[in-house]
Amino acid sequence: MVKLPKSIEREMAACLQCGYCIRVCDTWAQTPWESVSPRGKVYYLNQLAKRTAVDSLLGRKIKVDDEFVDALYKCTGCARCWSVCHVNIEFAEFWEVVREWVVEQGKGPLEAHIRIRERLEEVRNPYGEPRSKRDQYWPKEVPRSPYPDVCFFSGCTAAYRLNSPAKAGVTVMHRAGLKLNTLGEDEWCCTSPALRTGQTKLTAGFAENNITKAERMGAKSMVMTCAGCYKTTSHDYGKYYANAPFPVMHFAQMSNQLIKDKKLKFTKEIKAKVTYHDPCHLGRHAQVFDEPREVIKAIPGVTLVEMKHIRMDSKCCGAGGGYKSAFNDFAVNIAAERVKEAVATGAEILATACPFCVVNLQQGAKKINANIKVMDISEMLLMATDPAPPTEQAQAAPAEKKAEPVKATA
């Protein structure tokens, strides 16, 4: 009999094997085998737990083999299966615990995920980029304050692959009057790419570095545009190291507060229909649904139109949980399906709140030649605001200035 962690056994015992999870699983739609479905993987785990010497005598192959490991990692970790589970199994946590157990058995993760961990150990980011380039995205017009209101955490994707969300987020907060700084090469990966693939050994050390360095900087809060970084820093660090001694906020939450406090002034309109994609880490996992939508609706000229699947029922972009690094073609296919749903709303802009979602959704849109522009909400705010005026006299001018329309094109 295989000894599984109590947390896994408890959820396995609760599972009704009803199969409701199958129809909402985007990765199962790419590889429609029962063994790849959430129900199939839970069934396999139950067989492992019940295995006895008799099974071995009869030649029954019940073990953690390559086929099961492959099925386990054919999952984005989106946890949409949780949203339809009749017994409320929290699959966001469950699949990560199972992957950690499989790694401890020496059976996982996949080769692509091992390379990610090795790069984290070597240069503190999953892309293998030099640490010295970590903050090259920083806008030249934004001064770095020695006593910041906000320590901006860029995250690896925004720092090294898609700079625009980080650059726009910093610029927008500067326009609202916040004093900003970042850790630069002392900013290490949040370790979400490792955690989601069951590789948990690095998180404590990386968390200690990021929290301690920001605390020594004197930052009053930490803000990030990446949903994965937000979920990891605000929800996971406490399990492996400690919670941050300052507020950790996603950019959507911070910008929404700045708008409500009338610190962020709109000077332009964006004449467009916009639909919003909930990143799994920000929405379903962290329950941040309203703030991004409030930000979008506050932008002059914007009409928010919703897709069929939103909030807890939101479809995944296809990029999370190590899925894109191991099964890129499938990940882009999932993104394409999500883009089709966005196009069906008549929207001209598909907005989201995570650079990783932006990257994959853009690739999905390109795959199907969709006439829709994929943007981060930070980029939309950048379009709708002007640089902060240098004097108090000039600060009064934008309030009387009529909003100028901006045409958003795909």
Write up what this structure looks like:
This protein has helices at 6-14, 26-30, 38-50, 53-57, 66-73, 80-84, 91-104, 111-123, 156-160, 164-175, 192-195, 203-217, 227-240, 251-260, 290-298, 323-326, 328-343, 355-367, 377-383, 392-395, 397-400; strands spanning 150-152, 180-181, 221-224, 248-250, 268-270, 272-276, 302-304, 349-352, 373-376, 404-406. Helix 10 (164-175) packs across helix 19 (377-383) and helix 14 (251-260) crosses helix 15 (290-298). The chain has three domains: 6-104, Fumarate Reductase Iron-sulfur Protein, Chain B, domain 2 (Orthogonal Bundle), CATH 1.10.1060.10; 132-257, Rossmann fold, CATH 3.40.50; 264-406, Rossmann fold (3-Layer(aba) Sandwich). It is built from 21 helices and ten strands. Residues 391-403 have low confidence and may be disordered. By secondary structure, it is of the alpha/beta class. The strands form three sheets. The protein has a four-stranded parallel beta sheet, with helices on both faces. Helices cover 46% and strands 8% of the residues.
Tally the structural domains.
3
What CATH architecture of the largest domain do you see? 3-Layer(aba) Sandwich
End-to-end separation: 57 Å
Strand order of the largest sheet: 2-1-3-4
Kindly provide the radius of gyration, computed on alpha-carbon positions and rounded to a whole number of angstroms: 22 Å
Strand tally: 10
| CATH uppermost class of the largest domain | Alpha Beta
- Please report the number of helical segments: 21
Strand content: 5-15%
Shape category: globular
Q: Mean pLDDT score, rounded? A: 91
Largest sheet: 4 strands, parallel
The percent range for helix content is 40-55%
By helix and strand content, what is the structural category? alpha/beta
What low-confidence regions span 5 or more consecutive residues with pLDDT below 50? 391-403
And the CATH topology of the largest domain?
Rossmann fold
